[in-house]
Amino acid sequence: EDKVVQSPLSLVVHEGDTVTLNCSYEVTNFRSLLWYKQEKKAPTFLFMLTSSGIEKKSGRLSSILDKKELSSILNITATQTGDSAIYLCAVSQVTSGTYKYIFGTGTRLKVLA
Amino acid sequence: SAVISQKPSRDICQRGTSLTIQCQVDSQVTMMFWYRQQPGQSLTLIATANQGSEATYESGFVIDKFPISRPNLTFSTLTVSNMSPEDSSIYLCSVPSGGRAFFGQGTRLTVV
After folding, report:
1. What is the pLDDT of residues A32-85, one digit of tens each?
2. What are the angstrom distances between the C-alpha of A56 and each of A49, A52, B62?
3. What confidence tens digit (pLDDT) does each residue in B28-67 have?
4. Alpha carbon distance A91, A103 (integer Å)
């Protein structure tokens, strides 16, 4: 059965800390790994990773994929209270031309002032 | 990219009633996904809606409970039928574009 597992499930840090969120997967017909931030209802896109070992970076956020280890990490440096959210990892698979996204359990991050 | 307008944003419904959620996309798309996110849980795929054919439901979800319409390539509806408190969730529509999944604003449903 295809699955995506994230750890930790929740995390509480103070402003300025650096956090690392983990995502591991066992998914057939892997196409890409995606990270989303969910603050209220709709997840917003952060990164899409398809190649192993290439870091994607956007401001204080960065992410890298390890296809050998079937995992990815999302790093957030110098955290701010606005980073408080649920971070979702998703893996896309393509079967017979049909896309499907499998979401992980999410990591709930709370940043304290 | 794709811009998706989803409504209603939230609703409080009596048990035994039905609610229809609408999603309008700003471009033509072949596939549209419907997800449920129960409190404290991740996104679970309910079904994939394809224009011109019946929706494909995931294990644990049935058409009688979650009927879906897809009359054209820019619009879809999901109905939550005969609701119970266990149906209280966030419901999200989503479309793939450029490898990414884009989401509507979500519908927060509370069943009392």
Report:
1. 999 999 998 899 999 999 988 888 999 999 999 999 999 999 999 999 999 999
2. 8, 11, 39
3. 998 999 999 999 888 999 999 988 788 999 999 999 999 9
4. 7
Rounded distance between C-alpha atoms, residue A20 and residue A64, angstroms: 11
Residues A90 and B26 sit within 8 Å (Cβ to Cβ) = no
Cβ-contact B37, B89 below 8 angstroms: yes
**Cβ-proximal residues to A69 (8 Å cutoff; 6+ apart), any chain:** A24
DSSP state of B1: -
Nearest Cα of chain B lies from the Cα of A87 at a distance, in angstroms, of: 10
Cβ-contact A47, A40 below 8 angstroms: no
CB A46 within 8 A of CB A32: no
Decide the pairing of beta strands A10-14 and A107-112.
parallel
Residues in A closer than 8 angstroms to B41, CB to CB, are 105
Q: Which two tokens stand for residue A74?
A: 């999302």
Out of B48, B96, B103, closest to residue A43 by CB: B103
Chain B contacts to A (CB-CB under 8 A): 31, 33, 35, 41-45, 48, 90, 92, 94, 96, 99-108
Contacts of B99 in chain A (CB under 8 A): 31-32, 48, 50, 92
